[in-house]
């Protein structure tokens, strides 16, 4: 049992240290959000990729960089409602 | 072994990236002089601006073998030297110092803090150093921030603390600066977005609006920890921060730049906000808001508290922003801000970094295109530009306000002094030999918008011609000579004709001299200033020694003539037609004394060389004799062993020219070399041992088809060898790498050359070319590539060449840009239409007017072969169409007449990909390709991203579909099609019936065309997702390509499926083959894989030098041009592999990135040896070189030879 506990603690430590570390109940939304944020940060971190995007869109690199960071805020929309909770919009329908 | 490849390549950079992602100003040498450090790709470069000449010179360029993400400079209190902090992808922070004496970067500290690579939460994206040099903060895009305390110990050495954490989960950082707080606790300001709340809120209410916060992090130096001291919401569109001077210089705080506003913020001050003025003009959208993309703060010398900002918008307009302080009763400014002011300053190309030098210059590192160096004429203080103040505008970002406008105008405050060539971004590149020279040139399209250029790159040194004058006859040789030993400049030019000699004096004018004492009725073999004040002229019948007008004649023995001669200040050697060598030496009294014995050679002597008399000695101790029996002999000239043979070297052809000279070597000293030119056109350089006369370490290079002639010349106080063949070449020691290089001169072919020095031209060369006498100089030894460029209209997308004629066709398109027809319409609508045209500012500086969703696109015909390359014609595309692909296709149905095919898309939106229609335009060539005639266009369902000729028809990649078209009268006719790619075809290559298809995301697929059944059948595809950008077929089985992440790779089809696909009647098998893991039945094998850092935009297989082997040349978006040279034998591979592994250990990358992991960034490096790392061998200190050489069981020279050989054999 102690082993299981230690594994659990280790996983929690990883999850807090490295954002995006999965767990058995990772939802599709969490996974997608995470992948999008990782992708955006990689594009920003590689200057040639950012230049490529800026060149294609014919915008300054700095502008594309800021836009890409803003996209990381909520890349795939709001999270789905938790179990038991429903969106108020849905309830009215 | 299964793990190693059986194909090996050597990767070399022939042109380093020219992009600048960040530039920093500082006193890195520890002197008062300001220098600029730039980060370009993986290179850290030190630039030295020269205010007197108005130039920027590169002093040092260091490849750190890692991605430089951010750099910062800091200075410890009381020190005069700036250190550099590097934030790279190594997961480590490196502090680097520049050592001016040895011209090197030296690492002082390297602290590991996290995983390597570019990751979301590993710090490295942002870096800020406290202005007083007490701490630095390194931050990741999300969550993590680390503060390092910088200090000095008792020995005045820099120390670095362990990191202090200032992490906060769920926070994205947009911008980060250090606050100027004087000597109170260091504070860093970050512009942050918190997403934790939005991530928890399923209603989407919290995520509806992004809220940006300005957060202060304070490092408490006493308690040694970091606190989140203050935070306040700012304009949600904010994206950039600038530091405002503090302490005694100003109010401290930051400028927060957002959409159409610049706001001053500080924890103890009120907010002040000014709008960014919009451009006024007929073609400008009056509703468009500008953002700040870069800027600089500059403190003025002398007066405390005087500072200003230059902020640049996304149009390139610079605005001067100043702060006004509240004044106290006495009229002195207090620490309280009264208002913020903004006014238009000037317009320059969009920059990534701006550096204002104390000497009154501005270095603007452009994000695309050439970097510029400006001088300030004035600071825009007293002009009639409108100034806007914060008094008139609300501080609340949501409050309504009236936008303000200004009118852009040509430069008024700045003057452009120098434009530094930059190929960034390089979009496409072709290699062709259009000038008829022996080596091909590189043609590429680079730049963006109206600053796009077509560039021709040629390997060579720039030559400036001083004189080219016609002569009465055609001389076959030329010399210059001084009159006495102490003369500073040359006095005579001596020309030898077939039966006469002409002596010219050098002065204000060049005139013939009649009283020179020279025998003018015979040809001359050699001329030399001898002893104190003598001159000798050697002609076929004898030696004429002229001392102060008196002439001593030595006659050649009867029935013999002199065939070769060599002389220096003290010695003369001649070779007679009988093969005898006669040696003379200067006596004490200044007369020539003949050595008693003659030395007989076995064959006819073709050339002789003596070499200069070494400083402090009486004579050069060696004589080199070249004979027509293909040998070179070294004879001793020591008094004890005069004319004794010391060594002999057999050659592959008869030597045509010899030159003994000492040159700078890579050890930092001087080495005596024997340079040998052969009749076959080969040039050899061997080391001549100064004691034994042994010849060792031969390096060779083929220069051209003619016999090579060698001359000693001087360039930049360096002895260089001028080698003449079908082109003139210069051999010299490269000032940056210290390696010996042989570079062609970009000049007419010369028959003879000599050193030339006069008052007007200290270090020149004189040469003859047919009946022309030419005097020229080589000014810069650093630049080995000559660029010629021609301006294009819009951002280039693709470059194609006419199949026979030397013309190029570039397709260009700009997104969100007003096309010319709409521009003209808007201008015509202008009320004061009379002066409408005069209002149009040149788009090169001001850009094109923007319009969302609009495309401006054209096709341009370029003639590169002109004296100055030029654009012959421009065809604008209309109806919001933009060109995306182009090809020249010969149609079999039209007697193989070639047509230009251009693929376009209508109303395209790039992200997410949208369009309304696609077209394929067909153009007919007229006047050998100088003119194009539009024939017809065919509507298709999607913009075709790839076009190539295929068996007399057109092959187009349209979305996922591969389609064959033939040319019809009204439109293109569909012949065959198949869906072959998973996502979007972006690149096509073909050989025979085989087609290689590159997908935008899913790698490469091989397709076979079955003519009998008219079917296109995929049979092999890829194992990993390669985001292909370019492809080229290396052979029938293999394809080389590059992807968006910066990898270059070679893939090969497995043997059996490859053979089976071409067997007649195999289509039935192919159609019914079982698909393997949802793909084609077979998979490609990866043969080579290499991470280049730059994003490859084109790749071709070609040869680059005369007689060189085929290499793969790739071009990168940042302006890199690289080559991959295949290894021929296994022995070399083993040698370079072990050299590379030694260098990895001995010369570990500066920023702490592991070289092997760096080159295997996405896929482990396979089959490629990093030549850039191997070439760093010559820069190592001597003891390390010796050690590596010992381990490899070779001599240092041998290793250096191998490294230089592999480069010179196939590249430059």
Topology:
The complex is a heterodimer of chains A (93) and B (1212).
Chain A lengths: L1 H16 L10 H18 L1 H11 L3 H11 L16 H5 L1
Chain B lengths: L8 E7 L6 E5 L8 E6 L2 E8 L4 E9 L4 E7 L8 E6 L3 E8 L4 E9 L13 E4 L5 E5 L5 E8 L5 E3 L3 E2 L5 E8 L8 E8 L1 H5 L4 H4 L3 E9 L4 E10 L5 E4 L10 E5 L2 E5 L6 E3 L3 E2 L12 E8 L7 E7 L3 E11 L5 E15 L3 E6 L4 E6 L4 E6 L10 E3 L15 E2 L7 E7 L5 E7 L8 E6 L6 E7 L3 E8 L6 E5 L10 E5 L4 E5 L5 E2 L13 E5 L3 E6 L2 E6 L2 E6 L6 E6 L3 E6 L3 E7 L5 E3 L4 E2 L4 E5 L12 E6 L3 E6 L8 E6 L4 E10 L5 E9 L3 E7 L6 E8 L6 E7 L2 E7 L3 E6 L6 E5 L7 E5 L7 E6 L2 E7 L6 E7 L4 E6 L6 E10 L2 H10 L13 H4 L3 E14 L6 E8 L3 E11 L5 E10 L10 E10 L4 E10 L3 E7 L2 E6 ...
Parallel strand pairs in B: 1-91, 23-32, 82-86
Antiparallel strand pairs in B: 1-90, 2-3, 3-4, 4-5, 6-7, 7-8, 8-9, 10-11, 11-12, 12-13, 12-14, 15-16, 16-17, 17-18, 19-20, 20-21, 21-22, 24-25, 25-26, 26-27, 27-31, 28-29, 29-30, 30-33, 34-35, 35-36, 36-66, 37-65, 38-39, 39-40, 40-41, 42-43, 43-44, 44-45, 46-47, 47-48, 48-49, 48-50, 51-52, 52-53, ...
Q: What does the main sheet of chain B amount to?
A: 5 strands, mixed
Given helix and strand content, the structural type of chain B is mainly beta
Q: If you compute it from the alpha carbons, what radius of gyration of chain A comes out, rounded to the nearest whole angstrom?
A: 19 Å
Measured by DSSP, the beta-strand proportion of chain A falls in: under 5%
Number of helices of chain A: 5
Could you tell me the number of beta strands of chain B?
Answer: 91
Indicate the low-confidence ranges of chain A by residue numbers. none
The largest sheet of chain B has its strands arranged as 88-89-90-1-91
- Rg from Cα of chain B: 34 Å
Order of helices and strands of chain A: HHHHH
């Amino acid at each position: 049992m102690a082993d299981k506990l230690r594994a659990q603690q280790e996983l929690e430590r990883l999850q807090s240290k490295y954002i995006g570390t999965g767990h058995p109940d990772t939802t599709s939304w969490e996974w997608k959000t995470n992948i999008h944020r990782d992708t955006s940060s990689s594009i920003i971190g590689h200057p040639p990729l950012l230049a490529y995007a800026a060149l294609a869109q014919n915008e300054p690199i700095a502008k594309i960089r800021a836009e890409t960071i803003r996209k990381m805020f909520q890349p795939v929309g709001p999270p789905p409602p938790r179990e038991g909770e429903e969106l108020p919009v849905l309830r009215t329908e | 072994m299964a793990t190693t490849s059986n194909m090996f390549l050597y990767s070399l950079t022939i042109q380093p990236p020219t992009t600048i992602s960040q530039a920093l100003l500082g006193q890195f040498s520890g002197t008062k002089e300001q220098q600029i450090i730039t980060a370009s790709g993986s290179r850290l470069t030190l630039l030295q601006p020269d205010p007197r000449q108005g130039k920027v010179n590169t002093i040092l360029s260091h490849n750190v073998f890692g991605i430089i993400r951010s750099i910062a400079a800091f200075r410890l209190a009381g020190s005069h030297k700036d250190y550099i902090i590097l934030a790279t992808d190594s997961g480590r922070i490196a502090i680097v110092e520049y050592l001016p004496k040895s011209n090197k970067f030296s690492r002082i500290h390297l602290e590991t803090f996290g995983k390597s690579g570019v990751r979301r939460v590993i710090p490295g994206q942002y870096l800020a150093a406290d202005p007083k040099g007490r701490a630095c903060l390194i931050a990741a895009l999300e969550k993590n921030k680390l503060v390092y305390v910088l200090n000095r110990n008792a020995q005045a050495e820099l120390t670095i603390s362990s990191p202090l954490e200032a992490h906060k989960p769920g926070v994205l950082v947009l911008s980060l600066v250090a606050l100027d707080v004087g000597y109170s606790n260091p504070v860093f300001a970050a512009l942050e977005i918190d997403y934790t709340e939005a991530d928890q809120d399923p209603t989407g209410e919290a995520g509806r609006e992004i809220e940006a916060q300005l957060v202060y992090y304070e490092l408490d130096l006493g308690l040694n920890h970091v606190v989140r001291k203050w935070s306040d919401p700012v304009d949600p569109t904010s994206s950039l921060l600038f530091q405002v001077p503090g302490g005694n210089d100003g109010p401290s705080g930051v400028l927060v730049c957002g959409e159409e506003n610049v706001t001053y913020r500080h924890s103890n001050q009120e907010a002040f906000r000014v709008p960014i003025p919009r451009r006024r003009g007929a073609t400008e959208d009056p509703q468009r808001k500008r953002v700040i993309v870069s800027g600089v703060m500059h403190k003025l010398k002398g007066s405390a508290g005087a500072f200003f900002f230059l902020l640049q918008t996304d149009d390139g307009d610079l605005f001067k922003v100043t702060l006004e302080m509240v004044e106290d009763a006495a009229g002195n400014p207090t620490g309280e801000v009264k208002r913020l002011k903004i006014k238009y300053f000037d317009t320059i190309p969009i920059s990534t970094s701006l550096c204002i030098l104390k000497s009154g210059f501005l270095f603007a590192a452009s994000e695309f295109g050439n970097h510029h160096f400006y001088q300030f004429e004035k600071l825009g203080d007293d002009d009639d530009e409108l100034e806007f103040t914060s008094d008139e505008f609300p501080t609340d970002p949501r409050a309504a306000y009236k936008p303000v406008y200004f009118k852009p105008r040509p430069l008024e405050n700045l003057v452009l002094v120098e434009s530094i060539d930059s190929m960034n971004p390089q979009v496409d590149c072709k290699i062709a030999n259009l000038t008829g020279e022996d080596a091909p040139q590189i043609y590429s399209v680079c730049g963006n918008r109206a600053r796009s250029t077509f560039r021709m790159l040629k390997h060579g040194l720039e030559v400036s011609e001083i004189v080219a004058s016609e002569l009465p006859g055609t001389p076959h040789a030329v010399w210059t000579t001084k009159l006495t030993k102490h003369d500073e400049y040359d006095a005579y030019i001596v020309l030898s004709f077939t039966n006469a000699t002409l002596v010219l004096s050098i002065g204000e004018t060049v005139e013939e001299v009649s009283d020179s004492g020279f025998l003018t009725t015979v040809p001359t073999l050699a001329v030399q200033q001898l002893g104190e004040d003598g001159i000798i002229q050697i002609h076929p019948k004898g030696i004429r020694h002229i001392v102060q007008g008196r002439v001593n004649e030595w006659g050649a023995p009867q029935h013999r003539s002199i065939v070769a001669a060599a002389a220096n200040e003290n010695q003369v050697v001649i070779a007679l037609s009988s093969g005898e060598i006669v040696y003379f030496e200067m006596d004490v009294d200044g007369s020539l004394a003949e050595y008693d014995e003659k030395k007989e050679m076995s064959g006819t002597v073709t050339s002789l060389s003596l070499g200069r008399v070494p400083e402090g000695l009486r004579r050069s101790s060696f004589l080199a004799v070249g004979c027509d029996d293909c040998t070179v002999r070294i004879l001793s000239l020591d008094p004890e062993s005069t004319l004794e043979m010391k060594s002999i070297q057999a050659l592959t052809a008869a030597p045509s020219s010899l030159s003994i000279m000492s040159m700078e070597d890579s050890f930092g000293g001087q080495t005596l070399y024997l340079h040998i030119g052969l009749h076959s056109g080969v040039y050899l350089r061997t080391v001549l041992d100064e004691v034994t006369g042994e010849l060792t370490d031969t390096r060779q290079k083929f220069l051209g088809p003619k016999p090579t002639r060698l001359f000693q010349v001087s360039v930049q106080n360096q002895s260089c060898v001028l080698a003449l063949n079908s082109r003139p070449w210069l051999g010299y020691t490269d000032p940056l790498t210290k390696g010996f290089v042989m570079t062609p001169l970009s000049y007419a072919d010369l028959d003879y050359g000599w050193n030339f020095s006069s008052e007007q031209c200290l270090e020149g060369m004189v040469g003859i070319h047919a009946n022309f006498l030419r005097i020229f100089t080589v000014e810069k030894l650093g630049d080995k590539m000559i660029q010629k460029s021609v301006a294009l209209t819009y951002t280039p997308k693709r470059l194609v060449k006419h199949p026979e004629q030397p013309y190029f066709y570039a397709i260009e398109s700009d997104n969100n840009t007003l096309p010319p027809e709409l521009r003209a319409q808007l201008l015509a609508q202008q009320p004061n239409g009379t002066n409408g045209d005069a209002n149009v500012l040149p788009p090169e500086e001001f850009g094109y007017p923007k319009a969302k969703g609009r495309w401006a696109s054209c096709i341009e015909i370029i003639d590169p072969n002109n004296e100055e390359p030029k654009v012959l014609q421009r065809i604008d595309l209309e109806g919001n169409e933009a060109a995306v692909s182009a090809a020249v296709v010969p149609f079999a149905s039209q007697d193989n007449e070639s047509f230009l095919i251009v693929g376009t898309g209508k109303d395209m939106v790039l992200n997410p990909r949208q369009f309304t229609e696609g077209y394929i335009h067909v153009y007919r060539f007229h006047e050998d390709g100088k003119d194009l005639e539009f024939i017809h266009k065919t509507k298709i369902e999607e913009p075709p991203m790839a076009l190539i000729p295929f068996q007399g028809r057109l092959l187009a990649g349209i979305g996922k579909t591969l389609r064959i078209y033939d040319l019809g009268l009204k439109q293109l006719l569909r012949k065959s099609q198949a869906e072959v790619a998973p996502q979007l075809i972006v690149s096509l290559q073909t050989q025979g019936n085989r087609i290689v298809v590159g997908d935008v995301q899913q790698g490469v697929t091989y397709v076979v065309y079955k003519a009998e059944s008219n079917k296109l059948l995929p049979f092999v595809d890829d194992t990993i997702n390669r985001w292909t950008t370019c492809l080229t077929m290396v052979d029938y089985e293999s394809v080389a390509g590059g992807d968006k992440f910066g990898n270059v790779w070679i893939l090969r089809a497995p043997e059996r499926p490859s053979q089976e696909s071409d067997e007649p009647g195999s289509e039935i098998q192919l159609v019914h083959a079982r698909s393997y893991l949802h793909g084609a039945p077979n998979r490609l094998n990866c043969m080579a894989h290499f991470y280049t850092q730059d994003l490859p935009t084109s790749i071709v297989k070609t040869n680059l030098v005369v007689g060189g082997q085929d290499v793969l040349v790739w071009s990168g978006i940042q302006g890199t041009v690289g080559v991959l040279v295949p290894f021929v034998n296994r022995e070399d591979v083993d040698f370079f592999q072990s050299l590379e592994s030694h260098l990895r250990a001995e010369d570990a990358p500066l920023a702490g990135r592991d070289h092997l992991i760096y080159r295997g960034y996405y896929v482990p490096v396979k089959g490629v040896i990093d030549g850039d790392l191997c070439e760093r061998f010559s820069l190592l200190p001597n003891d390390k070189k010796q050690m590596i050489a010992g381990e490899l069981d070779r001599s240092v020279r041998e290793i250096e030879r191998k490294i230089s050989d592999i480069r010179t054999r196939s590249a430059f």
